[in-house]
């Protein structure tokens, strides 16, 4: 393919090296910053000491930091790492600073899982101008930047030639702002794990919405030979759309810039705020895209599904020590984002909670756009969405809030006291204020 080189920021390549960890082991990560700007390492989703996984501790250029932690028991699942420098997360993540953390545990020895063919799929979109990532426009800060170049493990529309008829896909949405509504042609997906690990048993789904920051593991049973497309179905997250226009340089050469989505922020060059407001048309959406092609083996004989996976603890929201309401708000034209009317301030504690208690958080999205809400350190369970109880129990660290939706979550604040954060995982929104501080004592 006639590509051309582009300048990225990476952990040695994109995606960064996959860190395979075992439950219970102690990990020492020696991290050195060779970038010309401050950065740090966030262990997204791992239940580890907040003073270790500290989003406010920066590693300056040329400096190193040791991240030492114990991988919690029962946490087998798919996690990831990325920088967390407030105000710079969007540019750093977008430019390629992300990698997977895979935690393995006893359940992975289950024959129905062990004998499946495992693939790690990191979904990410890009936008280039010449050989670089262009500067952020006001529009990017408002909506979160999306690019028209869609990749799986940094490859445009790769082909996955399956040797086996059962696939175990570990999926990560590493995009700044793009949502993926995933479906595999002619095949259901069997969801076996969410952000924080295994479900109690596989759940058959026809599609899977993966918001920025979310992970999922699915089993695919290929029953017929042939090629099947893994697609991103159209999804409207309510971003502002610009009329017409294209962004110019599609990126890496012919055939790579497949499809300018309706979310294309083109035509913005040199436009002032007033022009921008005048040309705002309404709500943007992504269109159908093919992400990857799966080629089934010649005479496929898939494994049976595991009858059960791991028990998922039943939390008791009736015994919650506190119920809180966190309201997500925005001042769109200013690209300013709020939780309970306040923008992020690292010197302020927004939520004080007691160690060892369970809390119920009512997450309210009062905007016209989806926001994936993410909490560090303490995995939670979704209780209800729009008043409807969650269909199954699952550990999460990121949950999508559709526009004007209310989602209730149960948050056990256990094991670690300290200071941590929660925020929107459209990282531009995080950079522009949609983050709060939680202190657990
Ligand atoms: Cu993946 Cu605070 O982030
Ligand atoms: Cu995180
Ligand atoms: Cu947001």
TrEMBL record:
InterPro entries in the record: Cu-oxidase-like_N (IPR011707), Cu-oxidase_2nd (IPR001117), Cu-oxidase_C (IPR011706), Cu-oxidase_fam (IPR045087), Cu_oxidase_Cu_BS (IPR002355), Cupredoxin (IPR008972)
Top EC class, one word: oxidoreductase
A family per Pfam: Cu-oxidase_2
Protein name per the record: Multicopper oxidase mco
Keyword line: Metal-binding, Oxidoreductase
Gene designation per UniProt: mco
SUPFAM superfamilies: Cupredoxins
GO molecular function: oxidoreductase activity
Tagged with keyword Metal-binding: yes
Domain Plastocyanin-like: 12-106, 142-232, 331-441
Enzyme Commission identifier(s): 1.-.-.-
Organism field: Meiothermus hypogaeus
Record flagged with keyword Cell wall biogenesis/degradation: no
């Amino acid at each position: 393919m006639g590509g051309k080189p582009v300048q990225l920021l990476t952990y040695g390549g994109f995606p960064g090296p996959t860190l395979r960890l075992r439950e219970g082991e102690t990990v020492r990560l020696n991290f050195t910053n060779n970038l010309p700007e401050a950065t740090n390492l966030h262990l997204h989703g791992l239940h580890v000491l907040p003073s270790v996984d500290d989003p406010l501790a920066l590693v300056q250029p040329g400096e190193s930091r040791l991240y030492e932690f114990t991988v919690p028991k029962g946490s087998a699942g798919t996690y990831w790492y990325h920088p967390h420098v407030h105000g710079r997360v969007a540019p750093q993540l977008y430019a390629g600073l992300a990698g997977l953390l895979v935690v393995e545990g006893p359940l992975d020895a289950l024959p129905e899982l062990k004998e499946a063919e495992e693939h790690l799929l990191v979904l990410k979109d890009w936008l280039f101008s010449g050989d670089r990532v262009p500067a952020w426009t006001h529009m990017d800060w408002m909506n979160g930047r999306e690019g028209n170049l869609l990749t799986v493990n940094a490859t445009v529309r790769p082909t996955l030639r399956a040797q086996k008829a059962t696939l175990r896909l570990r999926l990560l949405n590493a995009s700044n702002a793009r949502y993926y509504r995933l479906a595999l042609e002619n095949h259901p997906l069997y969801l076996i794990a969410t952000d924080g690990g295994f479900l109690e048993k596989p759940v058959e789904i026809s599609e899977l919405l993966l918001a920025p920051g979310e992970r999922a593991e699915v089993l695919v049973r290929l029953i017929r030979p042939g090629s099947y497309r893994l697609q991103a179905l159209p999804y409207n997250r309510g971003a502002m759309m610009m009329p017409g226009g294209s962004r110019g340089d599609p990126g890496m050469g012919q055939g790579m810039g497949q499809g300018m989505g309706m979310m294309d922020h083109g035509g913005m060059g040199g436009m002032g705020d007033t022009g921008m407001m005048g040309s705002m048309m309404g709500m943007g959406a992504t269109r159908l895209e093919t992400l990857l092609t799966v080629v089934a083996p010649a005479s496929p004989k898939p494994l049976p599904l595991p009858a059960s996976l791991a028990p998922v603890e039943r939390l008791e929201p009736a015994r919650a020590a506190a119920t809180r309401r966190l309201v997500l708000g925005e001042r769109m034209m200013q690209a300013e984002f709020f939780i309970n009317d306040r923008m992020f301030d690292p010197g302020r504690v927004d939520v004080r909670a007691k160690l060892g208690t369970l809390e119920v958080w009512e997450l309210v999205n009062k905007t016209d756009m989806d926001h994936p809400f993410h909490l560090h350190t303490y995995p939670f369970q979704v209780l209800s969405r729009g008043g409807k109880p969650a269909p199954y129990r699952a550990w999460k660290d990121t949950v999508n809030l559709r526009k004007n939706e209310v989602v209730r979550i149960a948050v056990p604040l256990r094991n670690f006291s300290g200071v941590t954060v929660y925020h929107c995982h459209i990282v531009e929104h995080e950079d522009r204020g949609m983050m709060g501080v939680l202190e657990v004592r």
